[in-house]
Structures are given as C-alpha cells and as structure tokens.
C-alpha cells in the first residue's frame, strides 16, 4: 500500500479481532489490518488452526495473537474475550469472519 493510503486508513494502536483469521479471507484481512498498523488477534476452532495461523503471520513478520474458540459457544466466546483483554487489551474492531459450511445434497 502507498504511504498516503496507509496514513488515511491508519489503524495504529488499534486491536483487531478477526474470527476465523487463521487462513483464507480472515487471514488476508489480518495481513491488511497489520499493514495499516493494527495489532492482530484471531481465533480458530482447534489448536492446530491457531498454530498454523501464528506461523503464517510470523512468516510475514507480524506478531499476532491466536486463541482456540468455537464462536458458536457463547460461554467460550466470553472466556476468550476476557483472556484477550487481559493479555492484549481491549478490542477496537471486530471482524465477524468465521463461517461454517454444511455441504449436503439439495434433495
């Protein structure tokens, strides 16, 4: 991104939580927010996903924070949010990216 664009859309000092941010669209959004200066926090349903996401962000030179959490479990989300606040800070931006695909026949 050009310097002028980064200044215009600066996220410096902001904490961005991206649900499902370990890969795919969520990961790409994380890269863009990090380029704009944001601190990236993401979740995945399993520890393997969190590990893969942390590795991918690290390869890009980004210090990200990953948490195991199934966003369909309200109590788990509350625990994750408390943990994020304690370890990283208060979330400024939430990107609801997590999705579930149920593939089944139409008939």
In short:
By secondary structure, the chain is an alpha/beta fold. It has four helices and four strands, in the order αβαβαβαβ. It is 42% helix and 18% strand.
How would you write the strand order of the largest sheet?
3-2-1-4
Helix content: 40-55%
Distance between the termini: 47 Å
Strands, count:
4
The assigned structural class equals alpha/beta
**Are there runs of 5+ residues with pLDDT below 50, and where?**
none
Bin the strand percentage.
15-25%
Average pLDDT taken over every residue: 92
Q: Can you count the helices? A: 4
> Which descriptor suits the 3D outline?
globular
| Major β-sheet profile | 4 strands, parallel
Query: Which H/E pattern describes the elements?
Result: HEHEHEHE
Radius of gyration: 15 Å
């Amino acid at each position: 991104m050009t310097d002028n664009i980064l200044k215009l859309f600066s996220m410096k000092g902001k904490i961005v939580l991206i649900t499902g941010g370990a890969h795919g669209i969520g990961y790409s959004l994380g890269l863009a927010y990090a380029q704009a200066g944001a601190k990236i926090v993401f979740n995945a349903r399993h520890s393997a996903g969190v590990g893969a996401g942390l590795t991918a962000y690290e390869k890009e030179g980004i210090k990200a924070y990953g948490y195991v959490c199934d966003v369909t479990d309200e109590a788990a989300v509350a625990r994750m949010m408390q943990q994020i606040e304690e370890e990283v800070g208060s979330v400024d931006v939430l990107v609801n990216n997590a999705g579930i695909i149920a593939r089944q026949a139409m008939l």
